[in-house]
From TrEMBL:
Domain of life: Eukaryota
Gene Ontology molecular function: aspartic-type endopeptidase activity
Start and end residues of each Peptidase A1 domain: 1-224
Signal peptide positions on this chain: none
Entry annotated with the keyword Transmembrane helix: yes
Protein name (record): Gastricsin-like
GO terms under biological process: proteolysis
Gene from which this protein is expressed: LOC103055509
Keywords for the protein's UniProt record, in alphabetical order: Membrane, Transmembrane, Transmembrane helix
Organism (species): Python bivittatus (Burmese python)
Residues that span the membrane, as ranges: 70-90
Family recorded in the similarity comment: Belongs to the peptidase A1 family.
Length: 227
């Protein structure tokens, strides 16, 4: 990776996976980039090994996910930071999590937590807000979340308030269009954060809109509008 050589990195091998969804996915493995603490098996992540073996100049990495369906490009850069980002201090040593508030709806008035996760395809919404969300975007309350493709431009923009900055998510981002079949790219979260607050997961739906940087040295995560 970028001429980085890591010695003695341990890997886990999964020999049996359920047919759905793994059979249909276009990749062969998962490279976890969580904070550099030992995992359940007592081994360390690749990020920790890069830092420990002095393979990167700064303890950070950034992530870009192309919006273009025909490209499917994903770029991950290590130890490099250029430009201005809106950042948020992490409030967990294990996951990239931060406070979220939405004053316009009243959701999260008593606080929410969010996780940035490149391994989650959808925007994951706390189950207690799901019905209100569907009403706001005028979508039926059913598992398929099917919407009218001709009405996407009339659907509202979702705005996340993170550390005092606004991060809009337009309907073109949270609605998937598969050859004229449109549906909300969302699912419900049925677990809370460790402190009991509602939990959002900002997956690929969000990351296609915002270039992200994970700064372990300063214990923060930052976002900038993606090109």
């Amino acid at each position: 990776v970028q001429n980085i050589v890591v010695q003695n990195q341990e890997f886990g091998l999964s020999v049996d996976e359920p047919t759905h969804p793994w059979y249909y996915l276009g990749y062969d493995g998962i490279l976890g980039m969580t904070n550099p603490t030992p995992n359940a098996m007592g081994t360390y992540t690749l990020l920790y090994q890069m830092m420990h073996q002095n393979q990167i100049s700064e303890p950070l990495f950034s992530f870009y996910f192309s919006r273009l369906r025909i490209l499917r490009h994903v770029f991950c850069l290590f130890g490099l930071f250029v430009g201005d980002f809106f950042s948020s201090i992490l409030c967990s040593s294990c996951f990239y999590r931060f406070a979220i508030g939405n004053q316009a709806t009243g959701w999260c008035s008593e606080g929410c937590q969010g996780i940035v996760d490149t391994g989650t395809f959808l925007l994951t919404i706390p189950q207690q807000y799901l019905r209100n969300f569907l009403q706001a975007v005028k979508a039926p309350y059913e598992d398929s979340y099917v919407v009218d493709c001709n009405n996407i431009q009339n659907m509202p923009t979702i705005i996340f308030y993170i550390n005092g900055s606004q991060f809009p998510l337009p309907p073109s981002a949270y609605v998937s269009n598969d050859n004229g079949n449109c549906a909300l790219a969302i699912e419900a979260t049925y677990v809370s954060s460790p402190n009991g607050q509602p939990l959002w997961i900002l997956g690929d739906v969000f990351l296609k809109e915002y270039y992200s940087i994970f700064d372990r040295g300063n214990n923060r995560v930052g976002f900038a509008p993606s090109a």
